[in-house]
Amino acid sequence: MAPSAPENASHNAALLSSSGVGGDVSSAAQKSRVTIIGSGNWGSVASKLIASNTIKLASFHDEVRMWVFEEKLPSGEKLTEVINRTNENVKYLPGIKLGKNVVADPDLENAVRDANMLVFVTPHQFMEGICKRLVGKVKEGSQAISLIKGMEVKMEGPCMISSLISEQLGVNCCVLMGANIANEIAVEKFSEATVGYRENREIAEKWVQLFNTPYFMVTAVQDVEGVELCGTLKNVVALAAGFVDGLEMGNNTKAAIMRIGLREMRAFSKILFPTVKDNTFFESCGVADLITTCLGGRNRRVAEAFAKSGGKRSFDELEAEMLQGQKLQGVSTAREVYEVLSNRGWLELFPLFAAVHEISSGRLPPSAIVEYGEHKPNFSAVEGAAQYFSS
Ligand SMILES: NC(=O)c1ccc[n+]([C@@H]2O[C@H](COP(=O)([O-])OP(=O)(O)OC[C@H]3O[C@@H](n4cnc5c(N)ncnc54)[C@H](O)[C@@H]3O)[C@@H](O)[C@H]2O)c1
Ligand SMILES: O=P(O)(O)OC[C@H](O)CO
């Protein structure tokens, strides 16, 4: 059964009151109510950030509902029950209190029923199924934001996750991306993030207000696709950085990979969406996320292990062994990007992106990321492509 706030016994029931704290009935009715769809590593940190703000800001209900993909823990208990008892996501963010106003809910429909601000933060591969389940279940006039770094490729071409959400659920959808390794933000180390919005600056400001804290500085830019593609494509470059780390090629090579990767990110984004702005690549979602992910992200780490094994161990096997249930986005994104490139005859223009997929799918050895000879990617081609598409 879906938990209602008062069942959350160890928490302060008053804080979880559905009518909000300290307001009369009419002001309570105008307050925004937030639900987070997703509860992995970043989803849990997002809950903590948001819960610390809803409790302070009069325009939001205190309670933050978090939809949890239910699972049984080794102890035999359900994850939602443990989160609601301990106020910690013991599997995906152990040791961090989420905020007593966070309520874990295993029932997706129940979790979104009363909300008018929806925060989507699951691995991207689950979003199509989640959206299907939510069709007709979301409150009219709701606003959404996606923290998901990834995309879908359909017959018609690539579909960003924010578009999937907008189209399937009939809601406006902003995005939030940035240099955001979740475990660092969980312990309140300073970082920045970028909200991308389409037209409505006021809505973007409301999202900024919901996420911003003294240690998490959020800026809004009018470029949904640019922000979202930065967050999505950097995961492909992170795999390349992991390969060169696994091959112990050193800092210069890794810096070259990051530079070439950034050029391909920009060219790919602009060729698909000519409205994408160059300045977006200088925001947290752009160059800063690329740097942090190539230094300390999960995609980099697993790609390093893959290269160290000489490509003999699969990404699936390494992900299961190294991440304990957390999911990589880079391998499927590299495949999706490759599909777009190959469908449109652009493979030669994006040699780094193409090489990453060919390596992660086992068609080329990890050393092909920079190897001279027949496998050497023609990195100079991308300079031409990037310049062409950005002019
Ligand atoms: N972790 C980070 O540091 C970080 C930072 C910024 C952005 N992101 C992005 O946020 C998104 C979510 O990542 P995360 O780190 O919160 O997740 P995660 O990789 O930590 O966790 C995996 C999540 O998927 C859920 N899950 C497993 N099977 C499922 C299914 N069949 N249906 C639905 N859910 C299922 C699990 O319950 C768990 O909550 C990703 O797009 C990621 O790129 C992550
Ligand atoms: O750990 P990764 O590789 O999924 O990257 C995490 C974040 O996206 C970094 O901003």
Largest sheet entry: 8 strands, mixed
Mean pLDDT: 90
Low-confidence stretches: 4-26
Order of helix and strand elements from N to C terminus: HEHEHEHEHEEEHEHEHEHHHHHHHH
Strand order of the largest sheet: 3-2-1-4-5-8-9-10
Helix content: 40-55%
Catalytic activity: sn-glycerol 3-phosphate + NAD(+) = dihydroxyacetone phosphate + NADH + H(+)
Keywords: NAD, Oxidoreductase
Family: Belongs to the NAD-dependent glycerol-3-phosphate dehydrogenase family.
Domain Glycerol-3-phosphate dehydrogenase NAD-dependent N-terminal: 34-200
Structure report:
This protein is α/β, with parallel strands linked by helices and 391 residues long. 47% of the residues lie in helices and 13% in strands. The protein is built from 16 helices and ten strands. The protein has helices spanning 25-30, 41-54, 79-86, 108-113, 127-134, 161-169, 182-186, 201-211, 224-246, 251-272, 284-296, 298-308, 315-323, 330-344, 351-360, 379-390, and strands at 32-37, 60-67, 102-105, 117-120, 143-146, 151-154, 157-160, 172-177, 191-196, 216-221. The strands form two sheets. It has an eight-stranded mixed beta sheet with strand order 3-2-1-4-5-8-9-10, with helices on both faces. A two-stranded antiparallel ribbon has the order 6-7. Strand 4, helix 5 (127-134) and strand 5 form a beta-alpha-beta unit. Helix 9 (224-246) runs parallel beside helix 11 (284-296). The longest helix is centred in the middle third of the chain and has 23 residues, at 224-246. Bound molecules: nicotinamide-adenine-dinucleotide and SN-glycerol-3-phosphate. Nicotinamide-adenine-dinucleotide binds at residues 38-43, 69, 92, 121-124, 126, 147-150, 180-182, 326-327, 329. SN-glycerol-3-phosphate binds at residues 149, 179-181, 238, 289, 292-293, 297-299, 329.
